[in-house]
Each structure stands twice: as C-alpha cells, then as structure tokens.
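Input set for joint prediction.
Command: fold jointly, output tokens.
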Amino acid sequence: MEEFLQQLINGLSLGAIYALIALGYTMIYGVLRFINFAHGDVFMIGTYIGFYVLNTAFVQSLGPGAETAVIVFLAAMVGCGLLGVIIEFLAYRPLRNRPKLTVLITAIGVSFFLEYTGQLPFVFGADPRTFPTVVEKTTVLQAGGLVIDSYQIIIFVVAIALMLGLRLLIMKTRIGTALRASSMNLKAASLMGINTNAVISFTFFVGSALAGAGAILYAMSYPKINPLMGILPGLKAFIAAVLGGIGNILGAAVGGFIIGAAETMTAGYISPTLRDAIVFAILIIILIVKPSGLFGRGGTEKV
Amino acid sequence: MSKKNRSYIYLLVGLVAVVGLSFPLEASVNSYDMRIIINIGISMILAASLNLINGFTGQFSLGHAGFMAIGAYTASALTTLVFGSAEGVTQELLFLVVLLAGGITAAIAGLLIGIPSLRLKGDYLAIVTLGFGEIIRVILQNIEPLGGSLGISGIPRYTTFIWTFGILAVLIFISENLMRSTYGRGFLATRDDEIAAESVGVNTTKYKVIAFVIGAFFAGVAGGLYGHYNSLIRPLDFGFLKSVEIVVMVILGGMGSTWGVLLAAALLTYLPEALRKIDLFGVSLSDFRMTIYSLALILLMIFRPQGLLGNFNPKEFAGRFKKNGQSKKSKPAVS
Amino acid sequence: MSLLHINNLTMRFGGLTAVDAVTETIEPLSLAGLIGPNGAGKTTVFNMITGVYQPTEGEILFDALSIVGSNPHEIANQGIARTFQNIRLFPSLSVFDNVRVGFNNASKTGLFGSILQPGRYWTEEKEIADKIDHLLGMFGLLDNRQELAKNLSYGDQRRVEIVRAMATDPKLLLLDEPAAGMNPTEKVELMNLIRYLRDEFKIAILLIEHDMKVVMGICEKIAVLDHGAKIASGTPEEVKNNPEVIKAYLGESG
Ligand SMILES: Nc1ncnc2c1ncn2[C@@H]1O[C@H](COP(=O)(O)OP(=O)(O)O)[C@@H](O)[C@H]1O
Ligand SMILES: [Mg+2]
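tokens >
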C-alpha cells in the first residue's frame, strides 16, 4: 500500500509535467487542427535555456533558492514562448490552408532541425549536460517508507498554479475569448473580425511557455539534459492530450496525470523497460475504442 | 513490342541488366562503395514500398521501419538460429525462404496494424503507426532470445547486388502494373477522395489494407536484405528516425511517383556519404547532414509540396486505351 | 413494387434534427425531385440513403432489402449512385480515369490479375475503355478524356460526376443540385440529358434542385422538405399550389 502510494505520487508528479506539455499540444491543435510535432523539442530548448541561465555568473552568485527559481522559470517560459511564436511565423504560417500532411511533415522538419542543430558541437553538443541545482532538494514528509520531497511539491504547486492561470486567461480575458472562438471555428472567428493571426501567435506563445515551465520542472527532477531528450516526453504528452480528447484543455491536464501514473506504475510493478510501451499501448487502445478521447466530442464529417 | 507484355519485357530487361551489371561491379567496385550501392537498393525498396501506402493510397504511415524490423528479425533469426549457414544453391534457396518469411511476417503485422488504423485519418493515423513502430521496437528490445537491445549479430552475408536490385525490379513491376489497372485505380481514388470512391463502389477499407499488406511485405523483405548485409541488427536501427527517413524519400520524390521516389531514395542515401568526405572549417559536413536535411524538408514543404517529380501524367493512361484500340505512343511510367 | 422506400427516416446531429421522420417512396423508372430551402435536410437524406451517414432512426429499403448499416460502397454496388452538391471528383485523375473508377466493381480482375496481367486482363480493360468512351461520348466529354478532372469547367465537372455515377450501372441515380452553377443553355441541356438517361438506361432518378424551372420541368413527383420535415409531396402542379410550400419558400425569401 505504502509502495503503491509512493508510486502514485511519483507518477502524478511526472504526470503534472506531461500535463503542462500536453496543454500546448492541445491548445495549438484546438486552433489550427494540427499536431505540432516540434513541441517536444521546444520543451528541450527550455531545459537548455535554464541550463545557460543557471550557469551565468549572476545566477550562480545567487546560488540555489527562490530567486534563482523565479529567474530560471521566467527565462525558460519567455524564451520558449518566443521560440514557439517564431516557429509558427516562419514554418507554419506560410502553410496556412495547405493540406494537413504538408504541415505535419513541416513540423517533423522543425523538430529535426531543433534536435540535430542542437547536437552540433558549437550549439549544445550531443553529449548530455548536467542541469545545475535550482533549489535544494529536501524531504518534506516522511511517513514509514513514504517520502515526499520538495521537488514534488514544487512540481504540483507550479503545475496547478499555471493550469489555473491558463484557465483564468482563457475564460476571463478578451484574448482568451478570441482564442475560444477561434478554436470553435477559425474561419468564422476571422469573419467576425477577430485577428486570427494574433490569436494563433498568442496560442503558440502560451502553449510553448507552458512547455518551458515543464522543461525546468523536468530538468530539476531528471538533471541530465541532451538535445534528443524532448522526443519521448513530447510524444507522451501528446498521447496525454489525445487521451484527454485533443483540443480539450481539461482533458490534456487529466490525460497528463493518467499517463504519468500509468508509466510509473508499469515501471514499478511490471518492468521498467516497458514504461514507454505502455504509453503507446494506451494511445492505440484509446484511438481504437474512443478516438475522440475521454473528454472529446465526436462528430460526423460533413459531406 | 505489344503493349500486352510490355511490362514483362521491362521486367526481363531489368533483371538481365541487374545480373549483367553485377559482374563488372563486383569485380571493380571496392567494398565501401558496394556497401553504398546495396544500401541505396535497400532504401529504394523501402521507399517504393512505402509509396504504395503513402503515395498511392494516401495513408500517412510513420511506422514503416517497424515492418522492416519485423522482416529483419524474422529472416535473421531464421538464418542464425534455425538454418545455420549454408553454401551454393542451398544458400540461395534458404535465403529466398527466409526473405519470404520475413516479408510474410511483416505483411501479417501490416494486416493487424492496417485494420484498426483504417478508421483513422491524417495526423491520427500517423501517430498510431508511429506508436506501432515504437511498440515493435520496444518489444524486440525485451525479447532476450533475439538479443534484447544488443540485437542479433553474426548474420551471414547473403545479400548481394543481384538479390537487392532483382527484388527492387519485381517490386517496381508489381506497383506499376497494379496502379495502371482499373482495379489499381481504386488505390488512387481512395487517396484522392474516400467518400467519392465509396460512392462509386470502391471498398476503400479493402484497398487500404491491401496497400498496408503489400507495403509491409516489401519493407520486411528489405529488412531481411539489410540484416544479411550488415551482419548485425539492433532494435535501435529501426526507430522513428528510420521511418521518417523513408517518409522523406517518398515526399521528396513526389508521393505516388515511383521513379521520383526511387531517385529520392538514391539521393538521400548517397548524399550523407558524399557529405562525409567534405570538410568545412574543420567540421565534417556530415555533421550538418540532419540540419540541412531538416531545413530542406521545411523549404520543400513550403515551396514544392508535391515533391521533385510529383506530377502525374494521366494522358498516358487514357492514351493506352484509345477509342478504336490503337495505342498511342506513351511514356513508360505511372509518374 | 417500389424501388426505394424510406420510412420515418430521422437524423439528429447533437441537438439539431436535420431530417425529421421522413417517409417517401420512389418507383422504378420515375423522375422525382426533392426540394426545400437551404438547410432543410435534403443532402442529409442523400447521405443517409447512400450510407455516408447512419440514420438516427428509421428504415431504408432498396429493392425491398434494408440497406441501413451497409457501407457506402455496398450500397453503391447494389445500384444506388450519386453526385455531390460540392463536386467530388478525383482531382489527380484524368476524366477517363475518374469514370474508370466507376467500373471498379464491375471489373472481375482482382489483385493478382492486375499484377500479372494475363490475356483476359487486356480483354477486360479494352471492354471497360470502350464503355467509358461510349459514356463520355454521350455526354460530349470525349475531347476532355485525358484532361485532369480538376481542370475542367464547372459544368463539365458536374457532367463528369454524372458519367462516373452512371459507370456503376445504377438502378437509382441521386443528383444533388446538378444544375448549380450552370447557365440557362446548359440547364436545358441538362434537363434533356436527365430524361435521356432515365429512358436510355431505364433507371429512376431523384434530384435535389433549387432551380424551379428544372424541377418543375422534368420531375413527375416532388417532395418538399422544410426544417427536416416533409411538408408536401405530389405532382409539380400540386406542390406549386400548396400553401405550406409557398410559406416555406417565402419565409426564406429564396
Ligand atoms: N455532419 C454534420 N454535422 C452536423 N450538422 C450537419 C451535418 N450535416 C448536415 N448538418 C446540418 O443539417 C442541416 C441540413 O443540412 P443539409 O442536409 O446539407 O441541407 P440542404 O441540403 O437541404 O441544404 C443543416 O443545418 C446542416 O448544418
Ligand atoms: Mg444540400
């Protein structure tokens, strides 16, 4: 029981990170109806932004602690947000109204570009780097064999705060309303006078910034970073988004937690080598049983 | 030459050319260059087989390397664990058997994967096939008798120029003949507009499954060739990256254009080798390979999404069946 | 015996009832029209008959057999062919090949026959090619046979779609707004063509059409839909003078 609880907590904290990444997939899908394959690599770039910021003389002089944490989170979120906007502007915007596959292939191209350019010796280099300490890791709670550490608390607090913030942003602000309208029908929204290009840029900024936050949380917990590290978390987060019902924001969050828990449980109780396979198996099952996902609404294609 | 057996004559000419070329090549080309040539042939088989699924039938599959893996493992395991090495005619016969076995196993996987995937379209299908590919890889990693993540080593080198390009010739024969027939036009109709195709009685589901099965079969055979040339196969050789490489060959060549796809497969296999030899500021250009590759992909999609040779010549088809039976001069390819 | 019988046919999309308990019969060899304002549910009726949509309720009998739940291609092969309101040709195929796809089911050459291409393959392909040319000739499209379908004029595309549907050798042909986008001369030609098709091929035709001249000019029987429900049916004369119909059309100012 204790072990189960521990696994569950570990799984949910991993899941919280997936959820943050999944939100970006789902928001972008919601507006543009395409899978931004490069999203996982934006996440990877986030860890490198954190890495370089943490290695500046100024941040080093601060040492691990709250100020460092704030600086590094802000830097990664803004950096990733801008990167997302740039990618959309340069690679996806010229393809608006083109067949979906064209855009999907372009996204794969962008993904490869980030991964392999990152591996060049004068960029990040192919070798893994060690992510410096952001805040010290302490044990917050210990009951029998059950341990909850400060990182897990930080992950939950940051992830849930960002999700609530996103909800406020989407439900209570003008741009949020525009975003919701665009998700329902981009063409209609543009006819109604909504500046859809601005909405799309905004969506990319917010979605990518959430991935940036997820990146720091992830790198704190798994402090080895490399240019290919975004692939798997990216795919898993995407699967979380599909599981929740792609385009559905609550679904992405719930999906993230489920995927994180399923992965950790499989690793703990069945075999660590199957932790990736289980996630793909979930994907295939959900797509066969209910392709619209847990919270998604299915529709009939209009003919 | 009568149009009726023209495709057979082309096949025969192709096979004779392959055999004829093999002797001077084996004699004069060093083993490094021979490796490139064989790799080009294997890439061509992979690309042409994916072209059946992706190009002709419009089903975007990102898991082709998974089929290749199944074929490679089946064939290589049969050779190393069951048959042991052989020589002479026995060897050639055994090789044929294991290649077919690899192809058939992959085809069965294609059937299994094809059926549930058929309800999905576009992005979703791409992701599901990607998932299947990854699952195949993970499963192989976990099968200890097949070497786990170390893979199978010590596979005898049976793959030759003749085998590789002979199989390629057969594949081209099959896909060109198929796509030219009234029956085969169902694949293209499925790609162009599923609802319209169904409305005139085309069983689009059946066509998609058939495309997956034939495509997977040849990917499996290509895997067998790969294993018996490389002597070593590992699950990692058949990852997502490999699948994407094959997809890019199809896209660069122009989906549905067999000759374009073959050309792209050759280019994309040869180019990294060529780049390897060039140094720029002390960095081998091959390090930039993937950066260039990905940029090229993005630019291609923006400026020439139909690929290098991706244009049909439908006149050719109508020309073959001129009103009063006289066939006009026509170009040989679907493309 | 009626050729097509739909009974209590209903289609709901979420909260919207697009087609509401429609009952109607089509006799063999008849020329019938389905009219109604935009959004009345006409195309949805076609989509249910051809298996593109699964009806929420109701039955569809074709030749006295239920076809609800059959796949669109099965229904097509039983003898119902159609065209689409927003033309759906195969854009990368030539006119000839677009029609050729219509012979897909009639072709007896299977997978292996098409690969190995024995003598009978060539005999059959020749037969099919002759039939295609015959059909194209009837519609005056022979000169366009090698053109890409997507490069044709709008009117020609509509006609290619009809030829493609006829290639399946149907007993019932459904035409969704065949005259849309045609000029008056083309419309007259189209009307003659539709009559000719019915007489020559001995089929029944059901058409959706907005142009009242066309509908009243060729249909022997007309059904009117409004907000998904059938509000009238009868001869053109009866329908024209039906107050409900007048109200539905005036309400829409169309
Ligand atoms: N696949 C669908 N999903 C949701 N609503 C649909 C779908 N198809 C049709 N509708 C709706 O059903 C109603 C009837 O549409 P339709 O049959 O196309 O009308 P008509 O052909 O008479 O103009 C319309 O309100 C349309 O928006
Ligand atoms: Mg309509």
